[in-house]
Amino acid sequence: MAAETAPLLTSGGVDQRPRHVAIIMDGNGRWAANRGWPRLVGHRRGAERVKQIVRACPDLGVNWLTIYAFSTENWKRTTEEVLGLMKIFRRYIQHEAEGMAAEGVRLRFIGGRDRLDDKLQGLMSSIEARTACNARLNLTVAINYGGRDELTRAATRLAQQIARGEVERPTEADLAACLDTAGHPDPDLVIRTSGETRTSNFLPWQAAYAEYEFTPTLWPDFTPDHLAQILDRFGLRERRFGGA
Ligand code: IPE
Ligand code: IPE
Ligand code: MG
C-alpha cells in the first residue's frame, strides 16, 4: 500500500495510527507440524514473513516495529531447534544488512547478549552501527529477551547509579533509562499471532498501556494485509490512559 493511500484514521481529529507496533511472532512450529514438516521449516518461513512485514511498515505509517524472535524461556527447546534458530538469525542479518541499510531501516536488538555465540553478537553490533543513522523504520529485534530479565538487569544498573550518588530518588524515567529500550517510545499496539492470549514475558514495562490484538493466524501466514486490517481496527479504539 502506498503512503498516499494509507487510511488516515481519526477519532476527535487525532491521528490514531499506531506509531510503534510490537509483535509476538508465534505459531511457526504448528504451521510446520500441520504440514508434517520439521519445526525449523516453520521458523524459516517465519523469517521470510519478517522481511515482508518490515518492508510494509513505513507505507502503513508504522515508524517503530519491535519483534519477539527468541525469549529467555526458548532455551528450553531442543538443541537442534535452538541452534537452527541461531543460524536463521545470523543468516537474516547477513542477507538483509545491505537492503536494510539502503531502505532506511535502523536495526537494534534488545535482550541479554552474553549467552549468544560470538559470531552472532559481532553481526548484531556491526549492523547496529551500520544502520545507526537511519530513521525511516526503527526495527528492534528481541533475542534472548525476557521482560523480567531486562527489569532485573535494569534494577541492578539503577542500584549502581544510586550507590555512586548519580541518582538520589529514582523516578520511572530513571528506571526506563536503564532498560534495553532506553530512548525508544512505548509500543502503542502489541499483536500476538497463533491464537494464544498471553504475553509470554514480552515488554511488561513498555507495554503497560499498549492496546493488544490477538489473531488466530499463525505467524508464517501473517501478511501485510493482515497487519493493515489490524491497524484499521486500532483507529477505532478509544485510549483513555486512566482519564475519565
Ligand atoms: C514462534 O513460534 C517462534 C519462537 C518462539 C522462536 P513457535 O516455535 O513458538 O511455534 P509454536 O507456538 O510451537 O507453533
Ligand atoms: C513467545 O512464544 C516467544 C516468541 C515468540 C519469541 P512462545 O511460543 O515461546 O511462548 P509460550 O511458550 O507459548 O508462552
Ligand atoms: Mg509458540
TrEMBL record:
One of its GO terms (cellular component) is cytosol. GO terms for biological process: polyprenol biosynthetic process. The keyword Membrane does not apply. Its cofactor is Mg(2+). Coiled coil: none annotated. Mg(2+) binds at D26, E211. The active site is at D26, N74. Binds 2 magnesium ions per subunit. Pfam families: Prenyltransf. Keywords: Magnesium, Metal-binding, Transferase. HAMAP family: ISPT. Catalyzes the condensation of isopentenyl diphosphate (IPP) with allylic pyrophosphates generating different type of terpenoids. Homodimer. Belongs to the UPP synthase family. This is Isoprenyl transferase. It comes from Paracoccus subflavus.
